Structure formats: structure tokens, C-alpha cells
């Protein structure tokens, strides 16, 4: 049993297929099959069930895949820690919601890069639910996610405080179809969940839901009058979107949305990660609380529904 064998076990367990595991590992399928056979002979137990459509881990295979995941994460952390100690900068992979990447992170990343030019920094965008999975799997070092986080394997710290608003085109929406159409990111986005709650609370049922893969696409379609969306006020009140939209406040229980930075509780806080978190704190001394006064009501309170 060696690291290469553990990587094979983890890849097959994650993908459920020898062919997909080979693609992940950038090798030929015969190498994956041979590695698995040697491991099973060495351990004296079957690790995977060979099914007509893929591979499924046996109980012993699930145990080994879990250990493989932990060992490989420790190896990656050890490499980063050694790079830290040697003054080579190391690597850092950070997940983030697209809105946070667009509005909050640019000045923070600029400061971090200027002060830590040797760190190999990777930014991975995605919805909060996906980012939590990536952190738990050890594929990224940490992530910015929306809302409270309670998980025994994670630790979190406050990063920003967002005020969610209903976003409409500045010229308003005249069609009933547009008012009852919600434009949102795919499932797993915390903002989408709040938006759907707001639509239900307002009695806007049934409502149409259109999913998009990017912030620009959502705002472009809102600007064209296709529907409404829910986003942080900081997004629509900054360039290049300033003046193109009307931001209407939501009920207080839906408007407040904290953004937290999460990482695994058992992860090593490398010098690169420590420097990054310091840059976040320096770039957000006030905790990110929304400072804008409400303008017009969003109409998502039942007594005056207008969204």
C-alpha cells in the first residue's frame, strides 16, 4: 500500500468507475485495474463490487477510501507546511460565491498578492452548498459561504455582512409574468433559497424559476425585464451595474445574510492561509455590515406584495 494506491482507491470510490478514475488520475485504465488487484491481494479482501454499470465500494472499500482521503489530505498539508517553512510561499485554494468574488474579493486579492507574491492562489467559484462539499472533501483549503454553518468537521469565522435586496430594472417591470419570474443561480445557492422563501411569503404562487450559471447572465436578463432576482445590495450599487437597477429592501428576517469563511477543523493553518485571513480582516474592518438606508419597499411583505 502506497500513496499511488490510495489515490486509485479514492478516485474509484469518488467516480464509481475505473474509466472515470483513470481520467481523473490521467493514466490508462489497465493501471487502475492492476493497482486495485494488487491492493486487494495485499489486504486479502475485496475493495469494490464489479457491477454491470460501474464499481461500488464494499464495506472494507469504504473504510479504506475514508483513510485514503484523510492520508492524502495530510500529505497535501505537509507539502504546504514544508513550502511555508522553506519560504517558498506554498499553495492556497479558496472557494467563493460568485457575488463575493465579484464585489468583496478584488481589493483583498490585490493586497494579498502584493504582500505574498510567491503563494500560488486558486479561486474556485460556486454556490455555498457546493463549496461546503469541496471543503469537507479537502479539495480546497477554505471557502466563503452564506449563512450559518454547523458541522462537526468544520470551523468558521465571520467575513462579511450582506443586505439582500430585491433587484428590478431601473425602469421597473410592467408585465405580470416578469413580476412572478425569479432569476437565480442553480440549487445550492443560499440567496436563491432566501428569494424562494420571499416569493412564497408574499403569496406569489405559482412563480416561474429560471436558473443561470453566472451573475452577468442574471443581471442582464433582469435588466431586460425578464424577471426579478435577490442579491446583495453591494452588488447592484457598484460599477458596472450602478444606476441600472432598483434595489428594494426585503423583510428584515430575510435581508440579513452573513458570509463566513469555513475550513476543515483538522486542517493545518499554513502561513499562506493565515496571511489570506489577515488580508480579509484588514479589507473588512467593519465586519461587512450593510450601511445603506432602505429605499422603497420590495413588496415582498404580504400586505403590500408587488414583486
UniProtKB/TrEMBL annotation:
Per its UniProt record, what SUPFAM superfamilies does this chain match? Periplasmic binding protein-like II (SSF53850), Winged helix' DNA-binding domain (SSF46785)
* Alphabetic keyword roster: DNA-binding, Transcription, Transcription regulation
- Record domain HTH lysR-type: where: 1-58
Q: Where are the transmembrane segments?
A: none
Q: What is the lineage of its organism?
A: Bacteria, Pseudomonadati, Pseudomonadota, Alphaproteobacteria, Rhodospirillales
Pfam families, alphabetized: HTH_1, LysR_substrate
* Domain of life per record: Bacteria
Where in this protein does the record put region Disordered? 285-307
Protein name, per record: LysR family transcriptional regulator
The UniProt similarity line reads: Belongs to the LysR transcriptional regulatory family.
Q: Which organism is it from?
A: Azospirillum isscasi
Amino acid at each position: 500500500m502506497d500513496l499511488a494506491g490510495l489515490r486509485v482507491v479514492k478516485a474509484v470510490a469518488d467516480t464509481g468507475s475505473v474509466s472515470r478514475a483513470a481520467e481523473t488520475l490521467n493514466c490508462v485504465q489497465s493501471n487502475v485495474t492492476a493497482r486495485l488487484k494488487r491492493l486487494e491481494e495485499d489486504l486479502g479482501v475485496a475493495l469494490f463490487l464489479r457491477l454491470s454499470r460501474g464499481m461500488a465500494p464494499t464495506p472494507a472499500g469504504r473504510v479504506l477510501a475514508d483513510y485514503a482521503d484523510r492520508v492524502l489530505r495530510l500529505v497535501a498539508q505537509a507539502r504546504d507546511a514544508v513550502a511555508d517553512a522553506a519560504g517558498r510561499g506554498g499553495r492556497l485554494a479558496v472557494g467563493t460565491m460568485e457575488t463575493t468574488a465579484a464585489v468583496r474579493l478584488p481589493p483583498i486579492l490585490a493586497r494579498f498578492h502584493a504582500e505574498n507574491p510567491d503563494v500560488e492562489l486558486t479561486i474556485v467559484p460556486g454556490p455555498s452548498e457546493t463549496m461546503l462539499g469541496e471543503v469537507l472533501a479537502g479539495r480546497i483549503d477554505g471557502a466563503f459561504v452564506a449563512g450559518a454553518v454547523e458541522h462537526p468537521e468544520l470551523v468558521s469565522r465571520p467575513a462579511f455582512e450582506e443586505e439582500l435586496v430585491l433587484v428590478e430594472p431601473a425602469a421597473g417591470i410592467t408585465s405580470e409574468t416578469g413580476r412572478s419570474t425569479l432569476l437565480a443561480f442553480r440549487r445550492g445557492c443560499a440567496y436563491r433559497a432566501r428569494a424562494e422563501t420571499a416569493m412564497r411569503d408574499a403569496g406569489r404562487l405559482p412563480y416561474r424559476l429560471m436558473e443561470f450559471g453566472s451573475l452577468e447572465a442574471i443581471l442582464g436578463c433582469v435588466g431586460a425585464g425578464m424577471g426579478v432576482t435577490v442579491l446583495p445590495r453591494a452588488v447592484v450599487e457598484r460599477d458596472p451595474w450602478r444606476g441600472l437597477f432598483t434595489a428594494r429592501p426585503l423583510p428584515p428576517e430575510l435581508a440579513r445574510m452573513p458570509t463566513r469563511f469555513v475550513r476543515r477543523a483538522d486542517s493545518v493553518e499554513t502561513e499562506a492561509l493565515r496571511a489570506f485571513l489577515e488580508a480579509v480582516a484588514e479589507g473588512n474592518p467593519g465586519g461587512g455590515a450593510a450601511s445603506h438606508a432602505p429605499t422603497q419597499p420590495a413588496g415582498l411583505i404580504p400586505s403590500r406584495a408587488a414583486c
